[in-house]
Inverse folding.
């Protein structure tokens, strides 16, 4: 793709198109987190349950570049994120805050503005309902941190999660919550 921005088409995920795209979205999810330098073991059944629940309880946007699924953003009300440190951040009202739970862009298409465009489309979709957005990102994901910071998000908390390498060995992953309000 020479210029993905010229050919991006965005769609809101709904029950009908999700059922048609489910396997492609799950493959994108698994590829995003189980390949590369810091690949994690992700159980297919757990991935199915997680992504299905995001679509059922929240909302999402997907983007096609040509006929190819290029990326997906999925989120739901922050009150559904059991890891968010509510007690440490009482100024962030969970009932007014949307949580971007997953943002995936196909590896071949990264760096072309797709993630930024997906976030903007999502913000437009939820703007009448939510005044705040939270996103969580691995502290080593420098491109994502840079993007979110340029978009106006700022760090508010850090948590540690136990993950597994493909070998099955456990490791600790530090994740940063970033927040933006009055978008």
């Amino acid at each position: 793709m020479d210029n993905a921005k010229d050919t991006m088409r965005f769609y809101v995920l709904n029950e009908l198109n999700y059922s048609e795209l489910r396997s492609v979205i799950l493959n994108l999810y698994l590829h995003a987190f189980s390949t590369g330098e810091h690949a994690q073991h992700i159980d297919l059944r757990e991935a199915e349950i997680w992504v299905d629940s995001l679509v059922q309880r929240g909302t999402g946007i997907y983007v096609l570049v040509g006929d190819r699924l290029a990326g997906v953003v999925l989120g739901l009300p922050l009150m559904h994120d059991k890891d968010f440190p509510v007690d440490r951040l009482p100024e962030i009202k969970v009932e007014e805050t949307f949580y971007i739970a997953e943002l995936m862009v196909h590896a071949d298409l990264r760096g072309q503005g797709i993630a930024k465009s997906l976030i903007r489309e999502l913000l437009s979709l939820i703007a009448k309902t939510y005044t705040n957005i939270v996103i969580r990102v691995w502290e080593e994901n420098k491109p994502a941190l840079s993007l979110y910071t340029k978009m106006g998000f700022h760090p508010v908390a850090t948590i540690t999660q136990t993950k597994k390498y493909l070998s099955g060995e456990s490791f600790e992953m530090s994740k940063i919550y970033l927040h933006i309000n009055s978008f």
In short: Helices lie at 4-7, 15-34, 44-57, 114-126, 142-150. The first strand starts at residue 8 and ends at 12. The two ends are 31 Å apart (CA to CA). The chain has a mean pLDDT of 92.
